[in-house]
Amino acid sequence: MSVSTVSNEIVTTIQSWLPSAVSLLTVNTLSAVFVARSAVARNRSWFTYFWFSLIATSLVMGVIVAALPVSEEYLPGRRQCPKCAEYVRREATLCRHCHSKLTALPALKRSGVSALNPVWTLGAFTTGIGVVVEVLALAKVIETWWLGLALIIAGAYMLFRTPRNS
Ligand SMILES: [Zn+2]
User: Fold this and answer.
1) What's the 77 CA to ligand 1 centre distance in angstroms?
2) Would you tell me how many other CB atoms lie within 10 Å of the CB of residue 123?
3) How confident is the prediction along the chain (166 residues), in pLDDT tens digits per residue?
4) Interval between CA 87 and ligand 1 midpoint (Å)
5) What is the Å distance from ligand 1's center to 72 Cα?
6) CA of 53 to the centre of ligand 1 (A)
7) Beta-bridge mates of residue 88
């Protein structure tokens, strides 16, 4: 188990997540700008509609991501079985697909944050935004209390449906 193998695995994990995260955020931001521009054309607040749209599209995408099954291939701490090419845990000494004997590899050392399941993190983030929206609604800064409630429900759903650690 060389250092370069470990760093390759870390780079591969980042590479598998980063493009989808960046492209989703880009699509969300561009659509929010579009919605906000059309809101201004109808004498509505750019600021309110930009954030409303950004949060709403992120929420919908978060629910879709949470509902998708995650392929073993993209889970950290996995490797391919040399016999059947299925994905198994690095520490496994027996393939759970073809029952071949394997040489155990040491588990990847991960920090607390990187060990968190991305969907769980998204759920926590969504719940947090929901609480902020509710506080703003109670303080009468905004009127959309139902948006905060929807965000809290969706975030809590993701939190309880997904294990905290991947
Ligand atoms: Zn196998």
Assistant:
1) 16
2) 24
3) 566 666 666 666 666 666 667 777 787 888 888 888 888 888 888 888 888 888 888 878 777 776 766 667 767 788 899 999 999 988 999 999 999 999 988 877 665 656 677 788 888 888 888 888 888 888 877 777 888 899 899 889 888 888 877 6
4) 8
5) 13
6) 46
7) 79
